[in-house]
Structures are given as structure tokens and as C-alpha cells.
Specification:
globular; three-stranded antiparallel sheet; mainly alpha; DNA binding; Arc Repressor Mutant, subunit A
């Protein structure tokens, strides 16, 4: 019996995530960041001076992925690390002026990506889908050990 991909939420969600990532990637590249860096930028636009651990908790990625992404962001002049005043092992992460200046254009690019992928949806359909996605994410988080 063949696996029916169109009936698998796991398969479809992975495809949807790739679609949103591709839609943002082309727009983000023009601005000087990657789609994978976008969640970190959002967290730092909301609150600078977070530790890597705090970012890990908020963005929910693997430690190695976070470390590599932050290294690339530092290399590309988007973040700077400063010593933590109480914990010698930790560093606080701050945006550079370059990254702060990207905020409005980056958020606009993300909105454009969303609009492109929700083209043809009625407003209530989009709102329902977003609600269902949030609910599924909450369920997935409860499954994590």
C-alpha cells in the first residue's frame, strides 16, 4: 500500500514550512540575512541583551544550529556579543546598527511572503489556518520531553 502524502499532516506541514522559508529566503537575501536568522532577529528586535540559552528557549532550535547561526550573524555584522556581568561563561547578544536598520524592511518582507502564500485565501480562512497551526504547534510542544 502506498503512503498517501496528501493525508499526512506531518508531510504537508514540512512542505508548508519549506514553502514559507523559500518565500522569505529570496526576500531576506536581498536585505542581507537568511530565513533561518529571522526568528533570532525577531527575538532581538523585541528584547536585546539575551543569552544564547534564552534565545534557544525562545526560538526552539538545536544548540549546534543556534551556535552556527549566531556565528554567521556575527560574521555578517548583524549581532555583537558582550560579556555577561554576572556569569563569566555567558555572553549577551545585541543587534548591531545594521540589524536594527533592517527591522522594518525585514518585517515587510515577511508580510509579503505570508501574503504570497495565503493568496486566494479569504480573511477568515487565513485566520482559521493560523489558529490551527498555533494549536498544532502547542500540541507538538507538549509532546517534547
Amino acid at each position: 500500500m502506498a503512503f498517501d502524502r496528501s493525508a499526512s499532516a506531518t508531510y504537508l506541514t514540512a512542505q508548508l514550512a519549506r514553502g514559507f522559508s523559500r518565500a522569505l529566503q529570496s526576500r531576506a537575501a536581498k536585505l542581507g540575512f537568511s530565513a533561518g536568522q529571522f526568528p533570532i532577529l525577531i527575538e532581538l528586535w523585541n528584547e536585546e541583551g539575551l543569552t544564547q540559552r534564552q534565545l534557544l528557549d525562545r526560538v526552539d532550535v538545536e544548540q549546534a544550529t543556534m551556535a552556527n547561526t549566531l556565528a554567521r550573524m556575527e560574521r555578517d555584522g548583524l549581532i555583537e556579543r558582550r560579556p555577561h556581568p554576572q556569569d563569566r561563561r555567558a555572553q549577551l547578544i545585541f543587534l548591531t546598527d545594521k540589524a536594527r536598520g533592517l527591522k522594518s524592511e525585514a518585517l515587510e518582507a515577511a508580510t509579503e511572503a505570508d501574503e504570497a502564500l495565503f493568496e486566494g485565501f479569504r480573511r477568515f480562512e487565513k485566520e482559521l489556518m493560523l489558529e490551527y497551526i498555533r494549536r498544532a504547534i502547542d500540541n507538538a510542544r507538549r509532546l517534547d520531553p
